Amino acid sequence: MNLFDVSDTFQSNFYQRWHHLNDPHVRALAWLLDSPDLLDPNSARWQGKIATLSDEHIADWLSVLDLDPSSLHEYLGLQPLTRLGRYAEKLLAFYFSHRKNLLAHGVQVRAGKKDTIGEFDFLLQQGDAVLHWEFATKFYLFEPTGSGHETDYFVGPNLADTLGAKMHKILHQQLALGQHPAAQQCVPQPITLAQALIKGWLFYRADAFPTVTSMGVSQNHCRGFWCTVQESAALVAERYVILPRLSWLAPAKVNAAHCVDKVALQLECTRHFMSDTMPLLVALLRQEGDYFLEISRGFVVPNDWRIRAGERAIHKRIVKDLV
Question: Is residue 82 within 8 Å of 248, Cβ to Cβ?
């Protein structure tokens, strides 16, 4: 299933610059710092509230860190980490600490002992200014079912949220946190600017690739495919690997012991979906020297995923009409 021309993918561009990195956490950090923004900062849809990273001096630092990543491993505290969002936040906090512009990370704002108003993801020092950055790493499948805001066609793999719902919450709730009286006691000085840094991957079917510029999505965002278990029989690659959640960020670089062939992949998918409906993120691999490198990636979903996505959209519209 050749859904994209893999000769000019984000994966190929990533390997051109970061092929020498071997530690998986350093590679994940390189992806966070160097990957295209998921959303277009210049789109009027986001009201100038989308942040972007730009650092021309990370290559040497990451190369040195890869040779001895012990400081990063210690900072991450890897054992307790199970949530991808928390893992990505700590990677970014490590970078801001290195840049010496991190004032605070994960600051909870309370009005009283039990009433939590919200949480600042990052408070950053930029000259004399204090910036509030909300941060999210998101993975959405494009499924244009039903009516509604077009960004709601980007649906989380577990059907729990959409890009539209997530951004509405960030823009109208989370980024307004600094204006709350209780929040002003948590910052050293008034917040100059509140923005959101959004990284991630979007996944499409071969017959449903939209014009994303009208949706506020960056033209060069990281992308992949999605297909059902039945359709996965048409996937073609030298090897495959099902990516665990904490390995979803950077393109995969694995040794042969962690790869499977087509038959084993389909057996693993079938076994998984007998008891679980959560889609699996699969990397398609090609051997390069001692490693297998990701050439493309996609979510394999249960055969009824599209139906359930449609039912979810209908239910949301009914609830909205009732309210």
Answer: no
Who contacts 74 (Cβ-Cβ below 8 Å, separation ≥6)? none
For residue 224, the surrounding DSSP H or E stretch is: strand 222-228
Summarised one tens digit per residue, pLDDT across range 273-296 is 999 999 999 999 999 999 999 999
Cβ atoms within 10 Å of 242's Cβ, excluding its own: 17
Q: What angle do CA 224, 122, 72 make, to 5 degrees?
A: 70
Residues of the chain with pLDDT under 70: 1-8, 146-149, 207-214, 312-323
Place of tokens 């004399």: 128
* Separation of alpha carbons 72 and 78, rounded Å: 10
pLDDT number for residue 110: 84
CA-based max dimension of the chain:
59
- Give the CA angle between residues 264, 265, 267 to the nearest 5°: 65
Q: Tell me how far apart the alpha carbons of residues 72 and 217 are, in angstroms, rounded to a whole number.
A: 31
Structure-block tokens of residue 184: 């002003």
Contact by Cβ (8 Å): 135, 121: yes
Look at residue 189 in the predicted model and tell me its pLDDT. 85
Residues whose CB is less than 8 angstroms from the CB of residue 40 and which lie 6 or more positions away in sequence, other chains included? 46, 50, 213, 216, 217, 218, 219
Token pair in block for residue 101: 């512009």
According to DSSP, the residues that pair with 199 across neighbouring strands are 137
**Dist. CA 138–CA 136, nearest whole Å:** 6
Burial of residue 188 (CB within 10 Å: 0-12, 13-18, 19+) is exposed
DSSP state letters, 6-57? GGGSHHHHHHHHHTT---HHHHHHHHHHHSPPSB-TT-GGGTT-B-----TT
Question: 222 by DSSP, 3-state: which?
Answer: strand
CA-based Rg of the chain, rounded to a whole angstrom?
20
pLDDT (0 to 100) of residue 321:
36
CA proximity to 283, closest of 20, 16, 24 = 24
